[in-house]
Amino acid sequence: MRDTLGSEGIAGVVIVLVAVGVLTVHDPVVGAGVTILLAGLALIAKGIADSTMRAFGLK
Q: How do the domains of the chain map onto residue ranges?
């Protein structure tokens, strides 16, 4: 995973997880909503990355 994301990417993931954890402790409903939002954004980003890679003939 370190090869794919690098140190900055792993730190970013940890920060996002800590932020969602803080929100969930404060209000579980808001934490669940933010988690669903982040999952949707991740799927959109994966789709865009796959589409771009196909356009360049890399996949």
A: 28-58
Q: Tokens 């940890």, residue?
A: 14
Gap between the Cα atoms of 59 and 57, Å rounded: 6
CA distance linking residue 45 with residue 22, whole number of Å: 24
Q: What DSSP character marks residue 59? A: -
Q: Is the pLDDT of residue 1 over 90?
A: no
Residues 33 and 20: their CA atoms lie apart, in Å, by 10
Q: What is the pLDDT of residues 2-54, one digit of tens each?
A: 677 788 988 989 999 999 999 999 999 999 999 999 999 999 999 999 999 99
Q: Please compute, for residue 51, the number of CA atoms within 13 A of its CA located in the half-sphere on the CB side.
A: 6
Q: Which residues are CB-neighbours of 12 under 8 A, at least 6 positions away? A: 5
